[in-house]
Amino acid sequence: MSRKMFMTILAGLFLLIGFVYDVIAKEQISNDVIKVAVLTDLSGTYADFGGSGSVQAAQMAIEDIGGTIFGKPIQLLKADHKNKTEIAANIAKKWYSYDKVDVISGLTSSGCALAVSSIAQAMKGISLISGAASTKITNENCKTNTVHWTFDTYSNSVGTTSAVLKQGGKKWFIITADYAFGLSMEKDTIKVVEENGGVVVGTVRHPLSSLDFTPYLLQAKASGADIIGLANAGADTINCVKQAKRLGITPNQTLVGLVLTLREIHSIGLKNAAGMLFTVGYYWDFDDETRAWARRFYDSQKKMPNMVHAGVYSSLMHYFKAVNATQTDQPDKVMHKMKELKVNDMFARDGVIRDDGRMVHDMFLIQVKSPSESSKPWDYFKIKQIIPGEEAFQPISQTRCNLIK
Hints:
Elements: H1 3-27, E1 34-40, H2 51-64, E2 68-69, E3 72-80, H3 85-97, E4 103-106, H4 110-122, E5 126-129, E6 146-148, H5 153-166, E7 171-177, H6 180-195, E8 199-206, H7 214-222, E9 227-231, H8 234-246, E10 254-257, H9 262-268, H10 270-273, E11 277-280, H11 288-301, H12 307-326, H13 331-340, E12 352-353, E13 359-360, E14 363-368, E15 381-387, H14 389-392
Parallel strand pairs: 1-3, 1-4, 4-5, 5-6, 7-8, 7-9, 9-10
Antiparallel strand pairs: 2-3, 11-14, 12-13, 14-15
Helix pairs in contact: 2-12, 3-4, 5-6, 8-9, 12-13
């Protein structure tokens, strides 16, 4: 056999092997489609916090990966959990079992997120949580198939509360949303305040999606506290801040939003929010990469993205990269690869996913600009401090997750 003929046959074998390998890889994508879903609040208290912006972020992730993996299309589903745990659970069961959804993302209510996380584990799906905050997600309720991506009550209470205490705000009163997220935030905030020489003189709890915060704010005013901590989010925080202004509570007492994003500040307005301190996981105007992604998002939404939207995009892009690397959508293999790969994108630099499901990344301590300091639309934040991920999130040594030995 001539050398030329041998090389021709060898090249043909390599092509055949590559073809067979590609066919096998494609067969490992279940049902010939990769299905991702966004389960969020599309109509209620957290509709701007997550909502259609989270759906848009997911669509951008699909477009940026090319719409397919190994020639198999990526399909996007969406639904409104209405911040009701039962609704979220029923949708998740249907998606994972009947619709064969591979991954559910978003989840703006802690109760909904905790329910979906348990269902994902039982039905061999994946959940990527960007909008909920309870630390139970990576502690008592930790699951092998869930990643808590964007922020939690620990990250936001530690960063914000510590900064306020350093500025002399020692006497606190906390207004709390009466469900899993708010209770977790209240607990974490009290711990940080007391450990740093402060005192919590009182707390009061309100139902989710309250409209009239007058009785709660008047209790806070009467307490004589220097700081009124708002352990709520979305429209609840917006209403609290606006009504506190009308009641003359500010500037005599300082409001501290424990979960605030760009969208809430946009609704509150710089005149009412100027000087407020809080912690976020993403700011659109941080660098060229964040600005480029945010402007693409803005073209569709006509609003800049907040950290929840950026988290949905980042988590799904990381999922797609893991599917591509493992050449399968088999959840255990994909999750193993997701934890093996570092997260490097416009949301996180050198982010890591721990075995308890916490994605650890840097957080930003933010102060809201005054109207005179803002030089362009959506120019609302001053970054006071970058908080390293290992300081921002609960240390693994303190975990209550049974997956950590």
